[in-house]
Amino acid sequence: MNSSLSLTLDAFYTDTKVTFDSTLKNDQFYLNEQLQDELATQKVSRFLDLVREKAAISTSAIIHSTNHVPTAAGLASSASGLAALAGASSQACDLNLTPTELSRLARRGSGSASRSIFGGFVEWQMGDSDETSYAVPVDDANWDLAMLIVVVNKHEKAVSSRVGMKRTVETSPFYPGWLETTPLDLAEMKQAIQEHDFQKVGEITERNGLKMHGTMLGANPPFSYWESDSIKAMQLVRELRHAGLQCYFTMDAGPNVKVLCKKSELSLVKARFSQLFKEEQLISAGVGPGIRLL
Ligand code: ADP
Ligand code: CO
Which segments constitute the Diphosphomevalonate decarboxylase-like N-terminal domain (predicted)? Predict the structure, then answer.
């Protein structure tokens, strides 16, 4: 429905190993060393079916995946997990896909995963088919940038991204306003990135994020991913800005708050957050690379 932009982070990633094995009757999916139930395995199998079709095989696989990011908590495990699964599964059957082809494939598992094939700032182009809709790198983000992640709640969210987005698109009267203005935000953002204009990047990040959360309040039935600590974290960002520290917040579909700041000021920002949040709730991240074959 709209193009979107992400920043790949080094702190959050997924390691995935896929082994096709003709002695298996069904796919077996282990996430964080736990054998997954039928429903979770089915999601992975459906994705592997796309890969099997491309490779013209019908062999089942054993999948071992470790998320170095909380799963389904609004910290983009679907982006990380499905990008890794696309890379590992296509390699395991020697498809030798280019990064663009990998992005197209990852998108079929999770839209957000199309971007996470690449490092730095990445744009996912809107569209409804592989022909038009895939991600392209925008900037390596190799400048004074960092992110502090405030983990308000690392448990699985009540409304998955997919269910929440569907309901918003179908019922929220605010959604047309989001669609109308987001292309302008994106164009301004790409300009700001090109100019390494931190303040502008931050301002657009914050207002676009809040606008997205606004669309959910207009849905029927309405829902919100915010918790009281999310608001506390957003308020602190505003206070820090008032005190002269340049930082801006954004939130994905979950209660956790991401604070975009300058790498050179990350320790200052973190120190202020330490006064309100526990050490284990604060994760420092830098700009991350794209997908890698181990
Ligand atoms: P998040 O905010 O974590 O991205 P989503 O609702 O978008 O939450 O997606 C969560 C879903 O992504 C999980 O229920 C699972 O289906 C999938 N997922 C997450 N990690 C992995 C992984 N490592 N391998 C395969 N699928 C994964
Ligand atoms: Co997701």
Answer: 1-135
Which token pair is 255? 């209660």
Nearest bound ligand to the CA of residue 84: 1
- Convert the pLDDT of each residue in 156-175 to its tens digit: 999 999 999 999 999 999 99
User: Degrees (nearest 5) of the Cα angle 52, 77, 21?
Assistant: 30
- 149 and 280 in a single domain? The answer is yes
Rounded CA gap, 55 and 204, in Å?
A: 42
In a domain, 294, yes or no: no
Q: Specify whether 150 is located in the same domain as 262.
A: yes
4 lines ligand 1 (CB under 6 A): no
Please count the other Cβ atoms lying within 10 Å of the Cβ belonging to residue 125: 14
In a domain, 197, yes or no: yes
From the list 112, 90, 93, 109, the residue with the least C-alpha distance to 45 is 109
Check if 64 has its Cβ closer than 6 Å to any atom of ligand 1: no
The ipTM estimated for the assembled molecules is 0.99
CA of 72 to the centre of ligand 1 (A): 5
* Pick from 97, 109, 93, 83: nearest CA to 20: 93
